[in-house]
Amino acid sequence: MNQEVEWAEPSKDESRRCELRHPDLRCLHPLKTPPRCHATSPYSPLRCRNCRSVISPFSIVDFSSINKIWICSFCLQRNHFPPHYQSISEQNLPAELFPQYTTIEYETSAVHEKAQAGSSNVFLFVVDTCVIEEELGFLKSALLQVLGMVPENCLIGLITFGTYVHVHELGFGQLPKVHVFKGTKEVTKDQLLEQMGFFTKRPRPTTGVIAGVRDGLSQESVARFLLPASDCEFVLNSILEELQKDPWPVPSDQRAARCTGTALSLAAHLLGVCVPGSGARIMAFLGGPSTEGPGAIVSKNLSEPIRSHKDLDKDSVPHYHKAVKFYEALSKQLVHQGHVLDVFACALDQVGVAELKVAIEKTGGLVVLAESFGHSVFKDSLRRVFQSGDNDLGLSSNGIFEINCSKDIKIQGIIGPCASLDKKGPLCSETVIGQGNTTAWKLCGLDKTTSLCIIFDVIKKENPDIVAQSANNQFFFQFLTYYQHGSGQMRLRATTLSRRWVAGPGIKEDLISGFDQEAAAVVMARQVSFKMETEAEFDPIRWLDKSLIHICSQFGEYQKDSPSSFSLSLDYQYFHSSCSIYAVHNSSSDFFMAHVNPLGSMGQVKNLQLSGRHAGDFQFMNGAGLLLCHQSMFGSEDWGRTGTREVVGPCLVGGFDPLPALTLPHLPLVFNNSLMTAYFRMILNSENIANSVVMIQPSLISYSFQSGPEPALLDVASIAADRILLLDSYFTIVVFHGSTIAQWRKAGYHELPEHQAFAHLLQAPRDDADAIIRERFPVPRLVICDQHGSQARFLLAKLNPSATYNSDGVAPGGDIIFTDDVSFEVFLDHLQRLAVQ
User: Fold this and answer.
1) Where is the Zinc finger Sec23/Sec24-type domain (predicted)?
2) CA distance 770 to 768
3) Which of 74, 281, 399, 488 is exposed most, by the fewest CB atoms within 10 A?
4) How far apart are the C-alpha atoms of 702 and 159, rounded to whole Å?
């Protein structure tokens, strides 16, 4: 954590009738090793006896007193050091008081945490058998491969489902034994205990909750269904090798009877009974839509189509609301148990991810979408889950995230993969956004890239100069993350930040110089996505037009009514290039956002400094990024088949003149396919800053004989016959060969000894693409294409259409884009004209 990265928080200035605030947005990346890193402290932290915050470098320590004391920076409570701290001095400080260690991790030693320290991770596979033989073969092969990668001490269980749900006993290797449940009926926890014979050899407790070995179950009964990988590998291999497609016949005019909801409910009950509070994951492998039992998204009749976004808008969805209600109840159960739901959806049809979204997000689960179980996206992503080493996911579990802050700040909520624990207190704001009305959240599953978007509220002061007149104008944040490490240890990571309020001249310059446009882009993308899901009448295009014009007029440099004089600070060039600067209107209060990774490492920090205005005015509180959902698996030619873009034309916004409709092809607002929409929104809401920025604005790298790899404009003009382009749009990696390069490659010049330079040129983008693929989850799709080839659409769909079929003259690279969308330059011309008015 770089403690020197300061930001200024201005106070109110009534003479200007506005207040420019300088809040904080940061992304703390988990488990990375920063330049200055302190090893995990093998003891429990010191906590304030009043507010329960953890001691930090910002705490005031009185070394002169006989019994040394420290003063909490949040509530100013005086706390005594325990006896084993009595030897500390200004020259002999513990790690948590070193100025550079504003983030520090502890191995907790509480009694209830010691009991869990040796607990093992649990993986319960839930396998869909209502797929064709070829798909089932691909899935079985992938599962058999990863079984050898599971750590030996991890527990494994298996449930298969189709028309019925089969819970497999793994502890009875001599003869396969299966418990069968009807898919049309929801099974309760008590029914599961009775039908699966958990109390055949010992009496059932008459009181209390049955939850694990410590609360009523024998180890022998648990080991029937959950066994260490080293003990059940042979049995699992045998079951998977003999696993057959669901045997029940399917009429030609009907869908397969698939009881996904019942299978997931049984899996949740089984884990809740056997291993509550452990790091357990339900890994569901789905090959089609649920058609029977609770959670069904469509009937079995093929004459009834699966719901689309238009159906959702018209409320013509007979199964949707009932299914969402079921999965909301399932998510509450999983959150209470501390368990995670991961979904691997591999089908050309929808599988119900839109309904499952609430359970996946609230438990922090992984989600992977692919066309087939045989696709490399699925197979490589599944291997990454169990991979160890430098590129592992760093999966952790059973976390709790808490926030403490100074009294001038309140918490509105969090947008991200978490669930509220309803811990209300004086720090909770009356305005709620996302998961609010609490200061603590449950993180059932988290990994290296997990990040949370936190929204704070600045308390208004009766005296506008009270902050400026204060002798100590600092305020503080503290983020506490309790979690179960992959090794089974319970740890606490504490990050403490300090910022200051400032007032007077130069506020705007301080604000601009400290602005982190990448972090702001991600925050705004998340908020717009959230508003689209929760506000029925929300119009993102109108909001974006108004916001963009306002922010450019506020922070641009120009002469009034002179568009040619307009310029924007370098600190806002990312906004300028992506055409996606936003402003937020909040009539009730001033607020700002922070974006943190709950396991953020020391030193990996991004600061966001934002501004506000009085109630009823606009506040510049968020950043850039037109991304709401990201189309990357399909090119522009596939939209008519797989999804549609909702394009809102020019409109009059709040008294502003309309902007021309700028629709970047790689940033569609809504898919007609709700599976795709839900999938991309879930990824956006959980990824870190760097990856989210790539979703918002893909990166383009150029390779040629004239120079080494260099960034290229995301524009059709970047295409050249003697150039190779590498496009990274997060979900898809495209290696694009210019026409001349493609001809030389087809002629085999790269295989000749005298053309080694050409061979190296061809290999360079492939090596860079492989490096990106190794580090990303879900594993992106790799597309290798040539100019004017059919798959060139994967690149053309992402480029700015500066040259179209309507353009005069010939494009520099010989390529044009067949679209009626306006180019970025036309959009900017209109923007500059409106901003200077």
Assistant:
1) 45-85
2) 5
3) 488
4) 48
